[in-house]
Amino acid sequence: MASSNAGKRAARAYQQRFPGTPYPVALRAVARADGALQVVIGTDTAGRRRWVDIEERGQGGEGPHLAVVGASQARRYRAVELMIEALAVRPPGRGVQVITLMGTELDQDQAVARITKLMKSRVETLKHAGARDFAALRRRAADLRHSDRHDPVGPDRGAVVVAVDGDAMASPVALDAMELMLRIGRTLDIHTVLAAQRLDQPQLAGLVSGVLTVHDDGMAASWRAGSTTVEVALPACGTGGEDW
Q1: Which residue, 57, 79, 133, 139, has most beta carbons within 10 Å?
Q2: What angle do CA 95, 67, 102 make, to 5 degrees?
Q3: Burial class (CB in 10 A: 0-12, 13-18, 19+), 35
Q4: Measuring CA to CA, which residue among 40, 54, 164, 188 is closest to residue 100?
């Protein structure tokens, strides 16, 4: 940040974009050099896009995991699509990979295999580097770049966002895989968007940081994270973020 005054202005602007964010949290968020991981959950009463920072809370966000629940599958999917579109438009500086495991034809065994492979690969990367988490890995890589030393790990350190249909992943094996992904997501910089008609699996519900509840009419939703609740409108299917 160029100056302390610039940092303060940026923090206040962040609080305006994310109402209810304490000032110290906003200051930490705008000070992050790699940029925040942000998604759109709908529009506010003034028609402005409502962004949510899904970094973990220790990094000033409201993540790392969230759920989209509601009776209408099509509207749940549309809410998830908005988030994915927002990530494409405004990715974090470290980069992001989006893995989509959605749809009524989703093969549970293949989805579990993909989740397991992802976690194993990220764990192996940390072991090879001797780092405790991906945040430490990126800090080390930055230090190596500044000293012109070789980076033995390679460039693949971006965030991963996994959008998964919880209703299609109902087997005990699938639930166990999702629970593990949520539990170690902070260490591996994996952020989960869990879509389901209801969030009634206790082992998953307790690991979700924020919930977007799509109303029965499918036209609006309520975002809840901690003590904060925000009402948003959802765009119709086929409309979206071309002008983001």
Answers
A1: 79
A2: 70
A3: middle
A4: 164
